[in-house]
Amino acid sequence: MNRTKAPFIQPELVKNSHYRRIVFTSYIGFTLHFAVLFLMPIMLEQVYGRGAAAIGFIIFPWGYAISRSRDLRRTPD
Questions:
Q1: Residue ranges of the alpha helices (H) in 1-77?
Q2: Residue 25 and residue 30: Cα distance in Å, rounded?
Q3: What does pTM read for this prediction?
């Protein structure tokens, strides 16, 4: 595991169970988020019979809200 002087990921981090839990949780959150982004339009069409324009009007406010929420996370420099 210690083959280079400056590894890209420090071996101590990989051994740390708290760090592994954070990485795993982030991966699950990322995967679920993109699964919803992919499956929601399909579900709206197949299950609820919505058209393309209606699906766009349903999904657009969600994307807009997410893009605006980044302003709330800004920290002062």
A1: 11-15, 17-46, 52-73
A2: 9
A3: 0.59
Amino acid residing at 54: A
| Helices 52-73, 17-46: inter-axial angle, 10-degree rounding | 150
Are the C-beta atoms of 44 and 55 separated by less than 8 Å?
Answer: yes
Q: Which residues neighbour 14 within 8 Å (Cβ) at sequence distance 6 or greater? A: 1, 20
How do the pLDDT tens digits run along the chain, 77 residues long? 567 788 888 888 888 999 999 999 999 999 998 998 899 999 999 999 999 999 999 888 887 887 787 766 665 55
Instruction: Give domain limits for the chain.
Output: 11-73
